[in-house]
Amino acid sequence: MNQSVRWWGGFLLAALLWVFVYGQLEGFAEVLVSSVGLSRALPFGEALYFFIYEVPKVLLLLTAVVFVMGVVHTFVSPERTRAMLSGRKRGAGNMLAAALGIVTPFCSCSAVPLFIGFLQAGVPLGVTFSFLISAPMVNEVALALLFGMFGWKVALLYMFMGLAVAVLSGMVIGRMNMERHLEEWVQKLQGSAGPGSAVPLAMVWPGRMREGLVHVKEIVGRVWVFIVLGVGLGAGIHGYVPENFMASLMGREVWWSVPAAVLIGVPMYSNAAGIIPVVQALLGKGAALGTVMAFMMSVIALSAPEMIILRKVLRPRLIAVFAGVVASGIMLVGFVFNLVL
């Protein structure tokens, strides 16, 4: 009991400190820029303000969300996720897999070993692909940062459109019956483990909070460099790119901007934490929301490292179908965003 009280007390103090610091960021950035003799009317002053404000803001948001999802992870483990999807049919299975992708803290690369485990547990290929797409693209980090920067409407629309891409892409791939394009050793694993996977024993709350801190250390420690680089690039765009310049390249009237954004984003490697500050800066300079979202989704969902790892389990034709179907879905999302917003 004493241990639980200490953990809850520490959590409450940390939460209050987080709220206080988050509320002071804007004023701190203003003061710091002024203290070095710069004005936000100057390009460098505005870029510096953007950088000083956004780096701690994104890190604070990321820390809070990763901690919460680390706690969620103690309820939704890989074993439990695999057990929930085993035996699910197309359609309902695709929707459940995509929904689980939101609440399971797995990036695109860490989702690939789960992909193998799902196939081994008898989860259909198309259902497994729905999870593989949803887990990195509609993840807790992306949703929290979108909510913090653009509001709940954009975050909610992104979530629903991302889920639609994951569900429909998985269903399309599933109907193509491409199991023969798995590597031979993966085909032999299919259905070799029954659905009765082990589920971890219940944990007490101090253990769950400790797990949340472990996730913060691992995930934030791994992505903070991407955040700094992403915010730095965003700061340069924010401070130096002329107003409405991006509208001529990525505006909604430019019909080819969405497919071009997807083609540019596919070979890149980043994550939501690193790419969203760039998204914010592009939008501030006149780029269309749908075009920028298509760029972000392609970077997150079709990263180069993920394709390299997938090559170990998928043959080239299935990788090409996967990338093509998902890219088509992302382009559709971009056009829809530009049409309705």
UniProtKB/TrEMBL annotation:
**Mind telling me which GO cellular component terms the entry cites?**
plasma membrane
Which keywords, in A-to-Z order, does the entry hold? Cell membrane, Membrane, Transmembrane, Transmembrane helix
PANTHER family, sorted: PERMEASE RV2963-RELATED (PTHR42775)
Q: How does it sit in the membrane?
A: Multi-pass membrane protein
Question: Which parts pass through the membrane?
Answer: 58-76, 96-119, 125-147, 154-173, 223-242, 254-276, 282-305, 317-340
Give the main localization category: membrane
Where does the protein end up? Cell membrane
Question: Record's family?
Answer: Belongs to the UPF0718 family.
Q: What is this protein called?
A: Permease
